[in-house]
Amino acid sequence: MSHYLNALFKPTSVAVLGVSENAERGGTSIFRAALKEPFGGRIYAVGRSGGEVDGQQIYRSIADLPEIPDLVFGAVGVRATPSAMVEAAEAGVKVGVVFTAGFAEMSPEGARAQQAMVEQCNHLGMRIVGPNCMGVFDRTSHLNLTSMKGVQDGSVGLISQSGNIALTMFTHARRHDLGFHSFVSFGNQADVPLIDYLEYMGQDDAVDVVLMYVESLQEVAGADFVRRARDVAAHKPVVAIKGGVTNAGRRAAASHTSRLSAAETIYSAAFRQAGIVEVTDLDHLLAVTEALLRCPPLKGSRIAIVGSGGGHSTIGTDCVERTGLDVPAFDSHLRTQFGQHLPPWAPVTNPVDMTGGFTEDLTLFRTLMCYPLSTDSYDGGLSYGLYGNSFKPGLVDDAGLTWESAAATLGALQAELGKPIVFYTPFAKDTAAEFTAMRRAGVPCYGSLAEAGAALGALRERGEFLARHDGASRSVLMPASTTSDAAPGGLVLTEFESLQILATAGVETVAQQQAGSPEAAASAADAIGYPVVLKAQLKDVAHKSDVGGVRLGLSTPADVRAAFVDMRHRLAVDETFVCSVSPQLDVDREILLGIRRDETFGHTVVIGVGGILTEVAARVAVLIAPTCFDEFCAAIARSPIADFMGEWRGKPAVDLQELHRLVNGLVEACIRDTGIQSIDVNPLVTVGARLVALDGAVVRDLSGSE
């Protein structure tokens, strides 16, 4: 595998900068810890004062080393860091890890120093990891340039923008019998982008699942991230948690699209399109990782719940259904099969409560779960009960099985049927041999029903992505935009001007005539036919109805003239005031369609409930352009507007193929005209099978660039 990050994860030689004879120095502790690992290459200590540490020479500079290392780890002061990194780059070092903080995360001056350092090092051929990062380790090369010791080996790759989040994962992983093969903390992400680390771990056969903590991507990198991450997720599970999901600090322009496409929804849309399983609760991160590592994906949404304990069965059902999965009732044939093993009072409708009989036969969990999962009616299972030595220490059942020796039976069933099974017992909050045995057999074992539910939900999301990926064309429909957000604010064009832009992009628009007087408005209405709609044509006003600029249902010339005069008076405009006159259509439903230029992801798409209910309902699907048709339909189907877009009160479903075409046309228009900041089509109405734009608001950069 040829990749420049080999110099980071699998270098042949390393230099640690900032080492001294003072054991308290950060560089010294990193150097000493690295020496204790069975790293196959050379590790050099570099520090201005020279001397020795643990019998190893401290070289005064990179130039004094007997060879040029592949990698340097910088733990010198913030003022000395840029010159130290540039010196390493000049010597021919390939990658530099900047452990030191105090750059872009601290001040504008720090940001400028960080940028200058990266530019100089890149010019000389060296890449920068960090600054403000914890370091890196890799089990293949046995390199550990972190302060962490005793991290359990395994097949999880961890990429984290935060060192503390990484430490949390390492600390709690043992409870899930999880271990790590490789890790990188990337801090400020000044140079090497997150997607490069993900792609590298995706190509590493020793990594079976990649776990990420993300606070941000680099500017304009979003579309590239989605495209490349999708290729990784196609053959390896990827799990992510996003930090900083609120809308604080994001400058919203005067459009519905901007208000409804906050950072949280945009990143979630990007993760979904890329096939990355997103977790929103830090406590569920390892639980989801464990399930994706051990289990086959769910190919459907129907879950069988079989175990012991009425209360746990009820809460477990709630936890499963909250993730969007189904717990359908067992039919009479399955109930009869369960009845062969259970007393007549045992509930057997789904969930099944075996009422404690498992202590005489520990294989009962497997036996009963086999019945529903052997049919085509169920896609996966949740088993539960007071399993473990904490309940009955030293238990031996009638067949001589113990908690530990029986634990593998569910795993054997999962392997036989190819359907995932997860297990809940309250005692699995602690480590024990019986839970380790169950996990090694392939069945995740959780001490929380919420974790079990989240795990099954993640397995379904994984299954949906793989099915979509296998069946979808992977062709890119259009070039992704690489423009960044303009300065805050922009000029909102009039409705008439906006609809002209929409029409040019291939959107059918309602017929319009402009009128600058009451008489002209009445004449236009006569020509169009009643009833008509009168709308004020105002620049820099996105929502005309909010200021009294829309009048509906005008049925006579007198109504039109009176509405024009009243509107002009209420808006307190001068004699240049212009209205548009349009026919009032009999519409089936009103849709919001918005395109917004995002500083990270390029062009984002918002589709939701339109009209005056847009922000009240706040039900939207968010996508990152470009999308193929299958991805587009999948995003609609999993969104809160799925039912709204389908057949509804006798009205036909929205033509998603036509809607997808309109989205593509509008995104292409935004790419061609870089002066467009956002487009709102609201409402885009359905008139039978047609999609017609009744109103639009195009926001242009104040610079007016094109």
Strand-helix topology:
Blueprint: H1 6-9, E1 13-17, H2 26-35, E2 42-46, E3 52-53, E4 56-59, E5 71-74, H3 81-91, E6 95-98, H4 108-123, E7 127-129, E8 136-138, E9 143-145, E10 153-160, H5 163-172, E11 180-185, H6 194-202, E12 209-214, H7 222-233, E13 238-242, H8 256-260, H9 263-274, E14 277-278, H10 285-294, E15 303-307, H11 310-322, H12 332-339, E16 352-353, H13 364-373, E17 380-384, H14 403-406, H15 408-417, E18 421-424, H16 433-440, E19 445-446, H17 449-471, E20 491-492, H18 495-504, E21 513-515, H19 518-528, E22 532-536, E23 550-554, H20 557-571, E24 579-583, E25 589-598, E26 602-609, H21 614-617, E27 620-624, H22 629-637, H23 642-645, H24 656-672, E28 676-687, E29 690-693, E30 696-700
Parallel strand pairs: 1-2, 1-5, 2-4, 5-6, 6-7, 10-11, 10-12, 12-13, 13-14, 15-16, 15-17, 17-18, 18-19
Antiparallel strand pairs: 3-4, 8-9, 8-11, 20-30, 21-24, 22-23, 22-24, 25-26, 25-28, 26-27, 28-29, 28-30
